[in-house]
Every structure is written in C-alpha cells, then in structure tokens.
From TrEMBL:
<dbReference type="InterPro" id="IPR025202">
    <property type="entry name" value="PLD-like_dom"/>
</dbReference>
<protein>
    <submittedName>
        <fullName>Phosphatidylserine/phosphatidylglycerophosphate/ cardiolipin synthase-like enzyme</fullName>
    </submittedName>
</protein>
<feature type="domain" description="PLD phosphodiesterase">
    <location>
        <begin position="307"/>
        <end position="334"/>
    </location>
</feature>
<feature type="domain" description="PLD phosphodiesterase">
    <location>
        <begin position="111"/>
        <end position="138"/>
    </location>
</feature>
<dbReference type="GO" id="GO:0006793">
    <property type="term" value="P:phosphorus metabolic process"/>
</dbReference>
<dbReference type="InterPro" id="IPR050874">
    <property type="entry name" value="Diverse_PLD-related"/>
</dbReference>
<dbReference type="InterPro" id="IPR001736">
    <property type="entry name" value="PLipase_D/transphosphatidylase"/>
</dbReference>
<dbReference type="Pfam" id="PF13091">
    <property type="entry name" value="PLDc_2"/>
</dbReference>
<dbReference type="GO" id="GO:0003824">
    <property type="term" value="F:catalytic activity"/>
</dbReference>
Amino acid sequence: MKQGSDFQLIYTQPIETSLLQTQVLEPVAFFCELFESAKYQIDIAQFYLNCQPQSQFGQVIDALVRASQRGVTIRILLAKQGLALSTRHTLAQLAGLRSVQIQYIDYQSISGGIMHAKYVIVDGQKATLGSHNFDWRAMCHIHELSLLICHKRIVAQLQTIFDFDWHAQHLQAQNIPILALNYHRISPGNFSRATLLASPNAYNPPTIGDSQLALVQLLDRAQTHIRIMVMKYLPLAQPSLTHRVFYPTIDDALRRAALRGVKVELLVSNWYRGESELQYVKSLAILSNITIKIITIPQPSQSFIAYARVLHSKAMSIDAKLAWIGTSNWEGGYLDFSRNVELVVPFPSLAEQIETIHQQLWHSDYAAPIDLNHRYLSVDPGADSCSI
C-alpha cells in the first residue's frame, strides 16, 4: 500500500476489456493486504457477501480468516434483504470463527430503504468506501470504483455510522424502536475539506452531512463541467412493488447546471427496464449541454456470468477540482431512505484520476450515445439474452 496519501482509488476494470488501470489499487491484492495489516479490529458493512469457489475473492476471505486466527475482532453488518444474495457456505465459514460476529440489519423497517452502504474500517485507522460489493464478480467482472481512506477524521466519522447501525441492529433484534437522530437536514458545509456524507439523513450521527442535500449543492456549484459514472440514473422512486413516483431532486439540479452552460457527461449502465425507465433519461438527454452514454460490457469468452459485466461505479468529478465517490445509485430511494455513504474530496489530483477513468470509458467501444429515436428493450442481467 502506497504511503503518504490520505486517499487512493481502488479500481476494478472488467477482465477481457480494453480498459486499463493507471496509478490505482487493484482490489484483490489491496483487500488482502488491508486485512493482513489488521491488529485488533475489522468492521465491514456490506449489502451482501458472495464468494464462489476458486474465485479471486476467495483470497480476501482467506485473509479475513487469518486475521481472525490472529485474534482480530471482526464485525460484519449485512442487509437483511441481501441475505438471499449471499453464499451460505461463506457466511457459515466466517460465522464459525471465534472472533467473528455477523449481523443483519433491516433498514426497510427503520426508514423504508435498505442497507446499501459498502465500506470497511480497520483498527480505526484506515477505511474504504465505494461501489465494491463483497462479491467475487466485483473483483474482476464489474466496473467498480472505491477509495482507500487514511484520513483520521473521516475514518472516525465512518466508525460512528457503523457503531450506530450495529447498535440499531441489536435494538431491532429486541423489537425496540430506533429513534431518529435528526429532524431537519444536516448541512454538509462548504466542501473546503474532505467531507463524509450519509443517508438516510434522519439516522446520521452528529457531524455527518446529508448526502441528498450535498449532491444538489455540489451540482449547483459546478462552473464548467460535470462527469458522472453511475450504474443507474433515474428520476423515479419506488415506495412499493407496484407504485412508482417522480423523484426530481437530482434531475432538477442537472437541468439547472445545463441551463447555466455547464457541460454534463453522464455514463450509465445498460441495466434498465426498457422504455418505461429510459424515457426519463432521454428527456434529460434532449437538453443542450447534456450528453448521456450507455455502457454495455460484453460477457467474457468462457461463459455467461449473471449480474456482472456492468458499470457499477458511483463517482463524479466537478470542474476537474472536486471528486465524489459513493455507494448510491442516482435514483429515488438511495439518497433519501437507504443507508449509503459518500465522500467529497476537493483535491484536483483525485478529481483528475476519476476524469481519466471516466474518459477512458467514455471513448471506449463499450459506450454508445443514448438514441432518442430507439425503443429500448428491457434488460434482465440474470438472463443470457440481454439486449438494449
């Protein structure tokens, strides 16, 4: 691990693509080294945990096992809704270790969302957050971007979020109500320094700003250009399985930016439910100064892999001066009701690295401008016949 930097990118470029790594950390080697360095505690918050036999991610699980054998306390907090996505044999392997505790939190009953954050804290000194699920596919078959954090204030703030959620899970298990911490939006500040954000705002510990409010403020401050990578951008929320409502918060901010003359370059994955969703994305692409491209990453040569080969990164650069790395998709339900974490870093060097990765994908063969006249079909990422 390179010394002397508070923030370093962790990047997965899917294998068998022309995408390249430049001055970033490779995820498998990084997480193995991170866990090998642990002295007394590892805290892991993830949506789910999925490791297949013989996958590279198995090396990361092995590093966790060795940490436990050294006496390191390991707390793993997963989403109750993610249990079905997890591999039971991996959960059983880890749960069988003496120093490992695994808990499942139900954010649906707390705020109407899910536990969607993806972060790790080691010894209260180092942390990661970003798009990497603890999933074997995220290590080599999905476009992912996360951040190593060695900044003491940020790590300490992230620890308060984990500790709150860990305690909340214990309250849930006893059917004790979890009281909100905030009844008004918490301002994130002026972004003159690295700023940790989280959602849902009502359950953010003190000093943690509201992600949704911060994102709008940042978009409203952009002067020249905004470059975004996100798995899904959609101005809709789905409060129930049968009902969807308009969610204009981010959409309005992007439109205001375009009207000011700010150039917006938005990259999204091809995981959309056809025209019923993409018509909203098209309505944004109609505007001057906004260009949207859909990323389609082909399957590897050996076989079809379900729920893989996709742009899953959630990152943004503003004016090549400010970087945003997070765990939220940009649609209703993520920045308002679900547990997610984001980090804003006002360092041009980091913003430029994100721009380099964005532009490599933007100009690749995997990117196609959204076609306003094309009627897109729905994509099922679990089926071997996706088309868009």
